[in-house]
Design brief:
Length: 376
């Protein structure tokens, strides 16, 4: 992630320093950045001169000392609270100026907890990119409890200068995207575990009927089952084990078997096989039912993010379109689907399973009673 963020910055004209405490990794990252840039140049994305300017702006460094003139530092080190805190303690006490903004790209740690390593936690903020950072337009901005308004304003302004779209989220597990998207994976896995359909049939139904660009199993294989599982487990633990976010045995076994997805050659699908086996077609009714189940849980989660003031309605819809390529914002989609319809169907699922994952968000129930929509 660090090298992607650095390249995005250098491409937009910012003088950028990239550091990793592992010199080998740093060298490999730099080589891969240069090779990506060359490919882009060959494709005609920019001229020789622009290429040279980008390379000239990007400095790799084996010492954090080179960050002394920076006005913003974005940390994308390994996802470990103590390591992140050590980095910021060192940066603040020994290296950066007093007005340098300090930011973390963490996906799952609390911004407030990392900020606590700083004497001045007012200037600390979460700036969360999506992978690959050079291509994905969304950046989540997460103020911690102590972050001041000026830091938030400057972070949003900088993201705009970077040519990206920012959304602001409360410092809660998964922020917006990694919280609201959980049921896309978990409910699809549950449908598979109940024997209703195969991985390929579920992917097919969600693409055909739901109009998602990728099915959940393809997407988990693309992200890496290890990464996706860790996010799920972390979000669940950080929500004090709310059963709504419970991980699945199916994905845990995938990780245990090192079926990590595309990067290991095998995940839910086998990427080493030349030909894929033909998928048996599901009945229309079953395909629609399973898509409905996944959508209902996504609608409920997006509504809960509004209910708990995680972000504004507009930011929640923008985040799911720009951060995960969903075909529509989930709140707008909920309006179209019908709020009462969502509540009634979720209640039916709850009556059947008595599982908290189907617990209706109180906001949806209130809205259904008063016949309200999110956007009209
Ligand atoms: N991978 C993603 O899709 C993704 C997306 C958004 C955010 N993130 C977040 O970005 C961060 C990095 O994730 P990643 O997937 O790139 O991890 P990664 O393991 O690929 O890279 C982490 C890098 O940190 C380096 N490192 C470890 N200790 C360090 C230290 N003390 N100082 C400097 N560098 C150190 C490692 O050498 C490694 O190169 C995490 O906080 C993660 O939550 C990842």
């Amino acid at each position: 992630m660090g090298s992607g963020i650095a390249l995005a910055c250098a491409q937009k004209g910012f003088t950028t320093y990239l550091y990793d405490n592992n010199e080998n990794t740093l060298q490999k990252s730099y080589t891969s950045i240069l090779s990506n840039l060359n490919k882009l140049k060959e494709k005609g994305k920019f001229s020789d001169q622009e290429h040279n300017e980008i390379v000239g702006r990007l400095h790799v460094s084996t010492s954090l000392k080179s960050f002394s003139s920076c006005t913003l530092v974005i940390e994308a080190a390994i996802e470990d609270l103590n390591i992140k805190k050590e980095i910021f303690e060192n940066l603040e006490q020994n290296i950066v100026s007093e007005d340098c903004i300090l930011a973390s790209n963490t996906s799952s740690l609390s911004i407030t907890s990392i900020a606590s390593a700083c004497k001045n936690s007012n200037r600390f903020i979460g700036i969360h990119f999506f992978n690959p950072a050079t291509l994905m337009p969304l950046v989540e901005v997460i103020p911690g409890i102590e972050t001041d308004k000026e830091t938030l304003r400057l972070a949003i302004q900088w993201i705009e200068e970077l040519g990206k779209v920012s959304v602001t989220a409360k410092d809660t597990p998964g922020f917006i995207v990694n919280r609201v998207a959980r049921p896309f994976y978990s409910e699809s896995i549950k449908i598979y575990e109940e024997g209703i359909a195969s991985f390929a049939q579920i992917d097919e139904a969600l693409k055909e009927i739901g109009k998602f660009k990728m099915g959940p199993f393809e997407l988990m294989d693309f992200i890496g089952n290890d990464i996706n599982y860790t996010v799920t487990e972390t979000v669940w633990r950080q929500f004090f084990y709310d059963p709504r976010f419970k991980p699945s045995f199916t994905q845990k076994r995938m990780v245990e078997a090192k079926r990590l997805g595309r990067k290991s050659g095998k995940g839910y699908y086998d990427y080493l096989k030349e030909q894929t086996e033909p998928t048996e077609t599901l009945s229309k009714a079953t395909a629609h039912q399973l898509v409905d189940r996944v959508l209902l849980l996504l609608f409920n989660e997006a509504a809960d993010a509004v209910f708990m003031n995680i972000a504004s309605k507009d930011d929640i819809d923008t985040a799911m379109i720009k951060g995960t390529n969903y075909p529509k914002g989930l709140l707008k989609w909920s309006d179209e689907y019908g709020i009462k319809n969502i509540v009634d169907r979720l209640d039916l699922l709850y009556d059947r399973y008595h599982d908290d994952r189907y617990r209706v968000c109180p906001l949806l129930r209130d809205m259904a009673q008063s016949q309200q929509n999110f956007f009209s």
